[in-house]
Structure formats: C-alpha cells, structure tokens
Amino acid sequence: MELTRAAGSDPLFAGATRPSPYLRPARDPLELPAGAVVLASCDGYPEQAFRIGASARGVRFLPQELPLDPWGEQLLGRFATLVAARAEHTATRAFFTRRADAWEERFAYQAPAYGAAIARLRLAPGGRAADLGCGTGRAMPALRAQVGPRGHVLGVDLTPAMLAAAARHGRTRHGSLLAADCTRLPLAGASLDGIFSAGLLDHLPDPAAALREWARVTAADGVLLLFHPSGRAERAARHGRPLDPDDLLAEGNLRRALETTGWHLEEYEDAAGHFLARAVPRR
User: Fold this and answer.
1) Is the CB of residue 225 less than 8 Å from the CB of residue 195?
2) pTM of the entire predicted model
3) Residue 145: Cβ-neighbour burial (10 angstroms; 0-12, 13-18, 19+)
4) What would the pLDDT profile of 185-238 be if each residue is shown by its tens digit?
5) Label partner for 172 (CA 20 to 30 A): which of 14, 257, 260, 281?
C-alpha cells in the first residue's frame, strides 16, 4: 500500500508515515465519481483511499487483525483532529444555511446604512475590494459603485447557501462570489485595496488570527472597515444584557487587537444606529 502524490497535500494524509504492511486492500471494484482524488493505492487495486470534494474521504483497506495497528490509530487520530478543527465551520454553516432563503428579505432595509458605511472606505476607481462574511452580498452594489467598472469586488462567505442566495438576488452583477474561510483567504499578499466586514470579527473563534490574515492580503495603502448596522449598546439591550467591558469591539480592546495584528485604528464610532471602525495597515 502506497500513498499517492496527491496525499502529500491532503489535510488528513499529509505528513503521514508509509502505511503499515499489515493492511489488507479491498479487492472489490469501485467506480469513483468525477473529480475524486485517489490518496492511497496498491498494485491491481488503485482506489484504496480517496477524497471527494473538500470534506468527504473514503478509506477501503482494512487491518488484518484488531485492534488497529499504530498506522490505523494514527489515521483515526488525524481524522478526529480534522473534524474537531472543522466543527466551528460546520456549526456556522448549519446556522446560516437554515436562514439563507429569508436573509435578504429580513434585512433588506439595512442597505442604505451599508452604503453610507462603505462610503467611508474611500476607495479609488479601479480598486480591489472584498466583503468578508458577505452573506447575501448586500454590500456588493455599493462596493462596485465605489471602485467603478474597472475595479474588482469579491464577496466571501463560509456558507454556500448564503452565496446561492446572493446569486439569486443578482449580486454577481457587481462582483464575484467565493466560498472560503475568511481567516484563511486564498488570496495573494497585498492583493486588496479595501476590506469591508459587517458583524463578523467578534464571532470568529480567533479574531487575532483573522486580523493578521486580513493585514496580509491588504496593500500598504489599503483600508479595513468593520461595521454593524446597530451600536453595541443597542445590541446588548436587544439581548437583555449590559455592555461587556471585555467585548472585543469596545474601543480600547479593538485598538489593542488591531495594533498587535498589523493595523492602526483611525476612526471609531459606536452610536445609536451603527458601529463603525476604520483601520489602515500599520506603517
């Protein structure tokens, strides 16, 4: 049994040792779907482990005896670690998938507030802007208006159902949609002139890692705009709780978080009707 070259870049198999010689290959034929990637193979029986899409994996070979040998235990341990790391994403997708179809209708009234906030980005025509955690992409028309026809607009969200709703509402007329983790962006360094993000940062499991990643993909003269269509006090009252001094979005806390991740806070507003923070890369 041998791992294939593709296994070297697979999150489950990358760095794994050579499979144990005591593993018994599956001998029944298997027709994999188009796009499947073979990860382990042996002479005469090539499809012993494979990946379908980003999340589904199949392993067909078996140990000759139980309990599992160390290699099998290692593989199961890696799989458990991978699942645990994806649990936050899975929960987020499940939460928003159920709400995607009604999201636009429920919050369409916020579009003018989004437009007013995006004006504060002050991007030049031809600029490159991303809406991170874009949901149904209601910020994308205003971003397109700011960067003009020669600019580029990208809407990024973790939940494909939200992006499907964005497409149904015509957001692809204003830019491109991408399903991706906003804390691990498939973008080159310094590739964006502006990042807009509404209601995302304080819900991420590691906000500092996100801010460092956003600094990585932002040009030296770029800008980050954090926004919410209601202020912190409004949101606390809506949930029946007092303002939390440890809230990441409190001015002092946010300033420290930005300063330690490559940003400088230029503007901060926490008012009735909106929350807004504008930051630039620290020079």
Assistant:
1) yes
2) 0.75
3) middle
4) 999 999 999 999 999 999 998 999 999 999 999 999 999 999 999 999 999 999
5) 281
